[in-house]
């Protein structure tokens, strides 16, 4: 069994979501810290150009997007589960909807407080190659009130849902809890304490602290060179080709392109290996890294013929 390798950077909130999932499961993992901005010369060959963080690597299998990474961790170690019985579809859909709805509003509140400290090169990258939105403090200021309203409305239903239970689905934390938590982590970690009152976060404090207490598992550092060597020496795991999803008609072996449908829309091309209703797997051959399987969720990604 290959080691769990996470390519991530410290201030990435989606990376924190996975770090906490690793903590919830008490897993040992190797930590490869990457730059917050490209270039990432030893990661890009592994991902085929996909540029979002985090990325999970297990041997020559590369998992992209947290909605693919968390199910991969669940398959590796089912207990404690991130999907309490009966919650699987709701946890996935709820987490996805929360993240999509609140990503820009949370950035709007963040830059209101700390925008002057964000480096110009980071703002340029997010505008031109990632979010396609100007997230400078000046550009986002006119929408500040709307961003606060959006966050307060979502926080209100979350507080109602958690009023009589430790986590969204009862006594056990779920992937949906982690999705909601990571947004609030971004704000509470980087903004002054007054953000709690601004957004009505006080009722969520016990829930927030329960999730923070999961920690990050047992990480040990690993260099990008070491991770690349692991991929080069490994062989992708066999996977069930699947029967396609509904009327999709995708045929394993076809050349296809997978692209995020919201931000960082960098297309990744490869040969279709497996597909079902929730995941698509591509084979890529890199001259240096060798044969790789890249795994993407169907949710939030566009699949088309190459």
TrEMBL record:
Gene3D superfamilies: 3.40.30.110. This is Glutathione S-transferase. InterPro entries: Glutathione-S-Trfase_C_sf, Glutathione_S-Trfase_N, Thioredoxin-like_sf. Residues 2-81 form the GST N-terminal domain. Keywords: Transferase. The keyword Cell division does not apply. The lineage of its organism: Bacteria, Pseudomonadati, Pseudomonadota, Betaproteobacteria, Burkholderiales. One of its GO terms (molecular function) is transferase activity. It comes from the Bacteria. It holds the Pfam family GST_C_2. It comes from Piscinibacter sakaiensis (Ideonella sakaiensis).
């Amino acid at each position: 069994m290959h080691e769990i390798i996470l390519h991530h950077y410290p201030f990435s909130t989606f990376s924190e979501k996975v770090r906490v999932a690793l903590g919830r499961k008490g897993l040992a993992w190797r930590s490869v810290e990457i730059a917050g901005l490209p270039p990432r010369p030893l990661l890009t060959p592994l991902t085929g150009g996909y540029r979002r963080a985090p990325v999970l690597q297990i041997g020559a299998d590369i998992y992209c997007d947290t909605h693919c990474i968390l199910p991969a961790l669940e398959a590796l170690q089912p207990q404690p589960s991130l999907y309490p019985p009966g919650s699987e579809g709701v946890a996935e859909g709820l987490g996805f909807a929360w993240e999509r709805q609140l990503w820009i509003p949370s950035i709007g509140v963040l830059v209101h407080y700390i925008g002057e400290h964000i480096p110009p090169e980071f703002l340029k990258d997010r505008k031109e190659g990632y979010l396609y939105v100007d997230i400078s403090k000046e550009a986002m200021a006119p929408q500040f009130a709307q961003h606060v309203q959006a966050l307060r409305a979502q926080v209100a239903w979350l507080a109602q849902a958690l009023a009589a239970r430790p986590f969204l689905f009862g006594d056990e934390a779920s992937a949906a809890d982690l999705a909601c938590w990571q947004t609030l982590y971004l704000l509470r970690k980087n903004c002054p304490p007054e953000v709690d009152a601004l957004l009505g976060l006080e009722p969520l404090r016990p829930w927030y602290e329960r999730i923070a207490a999961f920690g990050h598992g047992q990480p040990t550092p690993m260099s990008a060179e070491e991770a690349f060597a692991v991929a080069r020496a490994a062989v992708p795991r066999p996977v069930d080709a699947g029967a396609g999803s509904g009327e999709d008609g995708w045929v394993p072996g076809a050349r296809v392109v997978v692209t995020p449908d919201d931000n960082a829309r960098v297309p990744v091309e490869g040969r279709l290996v497996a597909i079902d209703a929730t995941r698509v797997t591509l084979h890529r051959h890199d001259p240096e890294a060798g044969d790789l399987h890249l795994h993407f969720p169907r949710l939030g990604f566009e699949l088309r013929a190459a």
